[in-house]
Amino acid sequence: MAGTYKTAGRQRLLAYLSSHPDRHVTVDELASELAASAAPGDKPIGKSTLYRQLAELCAEGIVRKYRADTQSAFVYQYLGTGDCGHHFHLKCVVCGQDVRYKRKMCRACFEKDLAIRRAQGDAYRAGSFDMDRSRVLFFDLELTGFYDRDEILSITIVDGFGELIMDTLVKPTHTSKWNKTEKIHGITPDMVQDAPTLAELTPRIKEIFAAADHIIAYGVSTDYSHIKYIYDTPAEREALHDKVLCCANEFVRYTHEVRPDIVHASLTDAMACFEIEWDGVAHTSIADTIGCMKVWEKLFPNYYKD
Questions:
Q1: Do 287 and 153 belong to one domain?
Q2: What one-character-per-residue DSSP string does 62-109 give?
Q3: Model confidence band, residue 46 (pLDDT cutoffs 50, 70, 90)
Q4: Beta partners for 152?
């Protein structure tokens, strides 16, 4: 019975991933989506099972695992069944002839499909969005750790002009040390000792966000999952979520359509792709915010009214 359940769970996981090849999802998101799409009689798939199955799929080259940035959770993306000697060679779903290369297609069909998707993506990114630079915000957080329970240590907000709206350290209220992330962003407990708390900053952050049309971050799932708690009600959090856009998601789409040779999607990778120099020290909230702003403008050169 255990073997049947494992097989059924793997089939459901593969079915979901293969039907969303352009998405990169966390284990939490997968667990939620699989639970929501479960048919009557389907047994639930626990997170420990998902981690094990995803590790197997990564080892087989069917799924890739990476982080969009240094503070976000790992995400997973479907790559396809690939081509190796100890598997049956599945035929291309388009022409039905050659063996599959990527996205269930042979190389020739994949390249034709890529050209179509690239043209569509280029048209989308070159479109005129007519946004007001003063009402488009970019932000980044540095944290005590990688999980929802962790606290904010710094927050930076800039607008589409690159004007600094907020840049401050934040004093955590229940965490006294954060050795792992300190090695990444360099913020020590002594540095935040006299900083304002998040509660003290909340009224000003709400005021800033209320005046924005779009709020953009790189790897927004991590930043949103922490900043949303300054709002008390689900309706307020949903209103914030509706304004939030993810630069990492857009870069991943760009790489799929224009630079399929790029296999990683961190902010560092995006900046290297567009040959953007860092302003300041990488992995500080101010440098990451400005970097995100510059990547966004490379992706969407006609985003603003001017």
A1: yes
A2: SEEEE-SSTTSPPEEEE------TTS--PBPTTTSSSBP-BTTB-HHH
A3: confident
A4: 143
Q: What is the CATH number of the domain that holds 236?
A: 3.30.420.10
Please count the other Cβ atoms lying within 10 Å of the Cβ belonging to residue 92: 19
Cα 98 from Cα 92, distance rounded (Å): 6
Number of H helices, E strands in the chain: 11, 7
The alpha-helical segments, DSSP class H, found in the chain are 2-19, 27-36, 47-59, 107-125, 179-185, 198-210, 220-227, 234-243, 247-257, 267-273, 285-299
Inside any domain, residue 85: no
Q: Which residues pair with 63 in a beta bridge?
A: 78
In this prediction, residue 217 carries a pLDDT of 96
Whole-angstrom distance, CA of residue 291 vs CA of residue 91:
42
The helix/strand/coil state of 105 is strand
Within 10 Å of residue 249's Cβ, how many Cβ atoms? 18
pLDDT bin (cut points 50, 70, 90) of residue 72 is low
Helix, strand, coil percent values for the chain (each to nearest 5): 45, 15, 40
Q: Count structural domains, the chain.
A: 3
DSSP characters over 158-185: EETT--EEEEEE-B-SS----HHHHHHH
Amino acid identity, position 7: T
Q: Is the dihedral of CA 230, 201, 156, 303 positive or negative?
A: positive
